[in-house]
Design brief:
Layout lengths: L2 E8 L2 E8 L6 E5 L12 H7 L3 E5 L20 H14 L7 E6 L1 H12 L4 E7 L4 H8 L5 H5 L2 H4 L5 H19 L4 H11 L2 H12 L14 E6 L7 H6 L8 E6 L6 H4 L1 H14 L3
Parallel strand pairs: 3-4, 3-5, 5-6, 6-7, 7-8
Antiparallel strand pairs: 1-2, 2-4
Helix pairs in contact: 2-3, 7-9
Length: 285
């Protein structure tokens, strides 16, 4: 069972979150990426609750209507504020003084990598879907074959001021097609569009890209890490994925899922849930 909770972190910032399990159980914080929403974790939240965890999956800054600063004010979507949001959610739900497990996909994974690097003492484990370690990703982007650069071309396209209307045109055809081609079921697509399929939310989601700035180097991760990558992921190539292990200074497991695309938790939820529960069992807090 999934409950919806409104989590206020600071005045004017209230996050809609999917939650499951007892508040005093070990926390698993799940951070979604671009083009989806808290509903990306709909299979994992009840499974984690059943396994004895407190699962919390918020719609992040801009995706939650009441945590949506003006998307035109890009400075309010800087990555430092996005990271702060995640940690503020942990505090607001009463786990400020407790270690927790962190899970991230796509943009949520970008935040998770940084949190794990900066605050390894806060985490019991890290689970990453799709997005490789930033240093492995940067190395792949610079490769002369240009493969990863081609896979990442959408990031520049999203900087265009007209990107939002294009993505939502014709009943969000671009986004619907992308999700469908990546194996996301129709019901999940509808759930995500209920969050992001409107101009204010889409502009806020794109503001994450527009506020990004230069990427800072990131060192080795000292947290037990599970990295799940689908070999049909059109945004992340094999070089970036397989190179991630070089940047983990802790127990590490790499799972390459055959035929799976960018949205593994929507496409193969049972497999993702099983991998996550195995990882959590190996690294209790």
């Amino acid at each position: 069972m999934i409950d919806t909770r409104r989590i206020e972190t600071t005045p004017g910032m209230v996050f809609d979150a999917s939650v499951g399990g007892s508040d005093d159980a070990p926390l698993v914080l799940l951070l979604h990426g671009f083009g989806v929403s808290r509903h990306f974790w709909n299979a994992q939240v009840p499974a984690l609750a059943k396994a004895g965890f407190f699962a919390v999956a918020p719609n992040q800054r801009g995706y939650s209507e009441d945590a949506r600063p003006d998307p035109a004010d890009h400075v309010r979507y800087r990555i430092e504020l996005l990271i702060e949001d995640a940690l503020d959610v942990v505090t607001a739900i009463g786990h400020a003084d407790r270690r927790f497990h962190l899970v991230g996909h796509d943009w949520g994974a970008s935040l998770a990598w940084i949190i794990a690097y900066r605050h390894p003492e806060r985490l019991g484990s890290l689970t990453i879907l799709s997005r490789p370690h930033p240093s492995s990703f940067a190395r792949a982007l610079a490769m002369p074959d240009g493969e990863q650069a081609h896979r990442s071309r959408h990031r520049k396209e999203f900087l265009d001021p007209g990107a939002g209307p294009r993505l939502l045109a014709d009943d969000a055809k671009w986004l619907r097609t992308r999700l469908s081609n990546s194996g996301v079921p129709e019901a999940a697509i509808a759930a995500h569009l209920s969050v992001i399929g409107n101009p204010p939310a889409m502009e806020a989601a794109l503001a994450w890209y527009r506020a990004r700035g230069e990427r800072q180097p990131l060192g080795p991760i000292a947290v037990p890490t599970l990295y799940v990558w689908g070999d049909a992921d059109d945004t992340v190539g094999r070089a970036a994925a397989e190179g991630t292990g070089e940047f983990i200074a802790a127990p590490y497991r790499f799972e390459a899922l055959s035929g799976v695309g960018h949205y593994a938790a929507d496409q193969v939820p049972e497999r993702v849930t099983a991998l996550r529960l195995e990882h959590l069992a190996r690294h209790p807090i």
